[in-house]
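Quick one, T. Sequence first:
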Amino acid sequence: MRFTRYSRYTGTEADGIDMDELLSQLADYLLQSGFQRQLYGFSEIDFERTLEQLRQAILQALEANQMLPPELRRRMEENPEQADELLNQLLQNLMERMAEEGYIRVDQPPPPQPRSGNADDPAQARARFELTDKSLDFLGYRQLKDLLGSLGKASFGRHDTRELATGVEVAGAPKTYEFGDTLNLDITATLSASIKRRLAEGHTGLEFPLDLDYPDLQVHQSEYQSSCATVLLLDCSHSMILYGEDRFTPAKKVALALSHLIRTQYPGDSLQVVLFHDSAEPLPLGQLARAQVGPYYTNTREGLRLARRLLAQENKDMRQIVMITDGKPSALTLEDGRVYKNAFGLDPLVVSETLKEVGRCRRSGILINTFMLADDYSLIHFVHQVCQIARGKAYFTTPQTLGQYLLLDYLNRKSKRIH
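Structure tokens:
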């Protein structure tokens, strides 16, 4: 007979660290946009996601936020010669815990750290990791929670309209059932209609079972809630990390927060992401964390064109483009496929073709709201032109307030009634 021996679980130092809080502190590293590349050069440092880089990021987060367990800190102070070994073991346990709990996916199991604390182990340097959907979902939730907390929002609504429809939530008087209505019967009204009909036909008293006919069927009415299709148009040209400021990472955080909001509170809505730079391409939400700043130029027209094509495939009551950018249009895809580029000032050809595309969006019933991360006079004038043509809004904001403006705008339009 086989026996299983159970012993008391003593745990590790890593078990005392709140994993949710640690992931929140690692958000900037996990969603890095390439900002460090301009500081260190493109070829001097490997910016791939390695376990050694994750180890360093965890160490910085623990030290910066005083998250080291008190017992471990005491042991390190009492045994300075073992401090590096204890700290390395903690970091190793944390990485293993992140993998076990499904926050990261590694190419190979994290190799043990050397006792000397030397981080130059070749196996550790080669091992790569990727964020899982669970991590992206958590980061989106925390970002949304932080943004809505700063806005003072405690609950969500839906796209309320002035129309009534048959549904589950009761919001109006019952109506006679018509073909195509949701068969959410108002039992009391249905029985009353049946009795009134029988009395009108000359019957006296009640007879059971009641004879129900189609005209007797009464259904509840609820407020008709419209749906919205959104394309988030993200500028990932090189200017988003220039001038000593990372503007792309906050934009990615807002995209994750908006995705989480739509998926959990507005399941009838849809969200797609489009990156635009020298050209434009759709980006699956699952790949958002890996997106980094790319080429130098800003092909706004191509981004709008792709967004318009994606929205044309959506059968929603409302369609909108939310554009986040900090640069002027400086590139244009010509009819033969070549890309015309001019980074000096607002090129009349690029601007005129971009505004024509804005006009096409308006004729397609697409609203464009622009969030500008710059305050250059010529850019302000261009954005105002976009708003006048598309009947949208312009928000001149900063990376620190971008999420508040965008989420507040989205929620406000959800609570407004459609005329």
